[in-house]
Each structure stands twice: as C-alpha cells, then as structure tokens.
Design brief:
It is a single chain. The protein is mostly helical. Helices cover 60% and strands 0% of the residues. Helix 3 packs antiparallel against helix 5. It starts with 17 loop residues before the first helix and ends with a helix.
Length: 159
C-alpha cells in the first residue's frame, strides 16, 4: 500500500465543514465551564416547551436529505429562538413554537439564570442565522448539530 502525504504545494485544505463544529465545541465547553456544577432552578414551562420543540427540529434538520429540508427545519429552530418579530424570524418557514411562549430569547430574559445562559443562547441564535443561509446539506446539518448542542446546555442547566 502506498501512502501519500500532502505538501505545501498541494494547495489549501478545505476545512469548511469542520470549522463550525470546532467553534460549537469550543462554545459548548466554555458554556459548561462557566455554568459549573451548580444546581439550577427549574425554568418556566413555556421556556422548556420551546427548547424541546427547537431541539426536535434541530434533529429533523440534522437528518434531512437535502439543503431545503435542513435549512427549513433550522429555520423552525431560529423562529423558536427569536420569537415572532425577533431578529431572524421568518414566518414563511413556519413557527412550530407558536403558542408555546414568546420565543426562547424573550422567555429566557426573565429566567433567574438568564445572565449565565444568555451567552449560550446568543451563540445558538447566531449559528442558526448562519445555518439557514447554508448552500450545502452538510453545512446546514453541522450548524443544526451545533445549535442542538447549545440548546441542550440551556435545557440541562436551567431551561
């Protein structure tokens, strides 16, 4: 078996799909470290319901067969995070969290652990906004996986 090695003259290596995952992993690790092991109070039912719905649609996006399916489900997640009228909200995607609350960003603002969790949610929001613009299924699914991981941190630590 012959092994080949890349050299500097082979040109740049495309690392685009891996970069979002590294960024997300770093954000999740930072979030976990900042949250510590403290026991968080249970959040509101509206917040928990929206988190569950958003995480479910992130999973749908991760399992989509094409870009349209992946970005549409990620659009659902973005709508759940932003809430109607929030940054990035687009009613054309559909709003599976309608009637569950005022959007995760809005409902988290009054949560007792808002200061600790807002940075994590802001990262999920930004990643979702980038992911809905993805031009490949892999990029959309990577963004969805990252958003799901960040929302899981919130759900596990006070959502």
């Amino acid at each position: 078996m012959t092994m080949t090695h890349r050299t500097a003259t082979d040109g740049p290596i495309d690392r685009t799909p891996a970069r979002p995952l590294r960024v997300v992993a770093t954000l999740v690790l930072a979030a976990l470290l900042s949250l510590g092991t403290a026991a968080w109070a249970q959040g509101s039912d509206a917040l928990n319901e929206q988190l569950a719905t958003a995480m479910q649609h992130a999973e749908f996006s991760m399992g989509a067969d094409d870009v349209a399916g992946a970005t549409t489900h990620l659009g659902h997640v973005l709508n759940c995070i932003a809430g109607e009228g929030g940054e990035g909200f687009d009613g054309d995607w559909g709003h599976p969290c309608a009637g569950q609350g005022d959007g995760i960003l809005n409902d988290l603002a009054s949560h007792p652990n808002a200061a600790e969790l807002t940075a994590v949610l802001n990262a999920a929001h930004a990643l979702a906004m980038e992911g809905v613009m993805a031009e490949s299924v892999g990029a959309a699914q990577a963004a969805s996986a990252g958003v799901h991981a960040l929302l899981s941190v919130i759900a596990d630590h006070g959502g």
